[in-house]
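dumping this here before i forget
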Amino acid sequence: MGRVVQKREVAMRMISKKGKVRAKRLPGAVARSGKKAQRAFAEAHDAAAREHGEGERARRIAFDALKDKFEKVGKRWERKAKAPAAPAAQRTAAGARQRATAPAADASATKAQLYEIAKRLDIAGRSTMSKGDLLQAIQRAATPATSRRSSPARA
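structure:
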């Protein structure tokens, strides 16, 4: 009898057929980032959407792929200074959770690396700060203003 045609859901591709990244479909921080970060996210998202379907899972996979080569500095994604320690498939669940919530700069970074991040974030007084002060200032600058708690004035 009649053939049953199975309807296939067409995913919303982030890369057009001409190969251009559709910036309007990118998340805010990725859209504000450089072309390479946008392309990395879009390619990973499209591949994940083909494999797992459109939705939250594809988006998370794309962010995990982006985190391998880029780090979030302020409201943008910038290329990491060095290669990741291990591929995403080899990370433990605890390590992946820890990295997902960790700030862009961590305590294992050198003072010079922290200074460069502070320079990109235009943090005032960075030249006289210690490593710990730089780390705190970067964490404060990377936290969105709406979620910051107002701290009591110091005497």
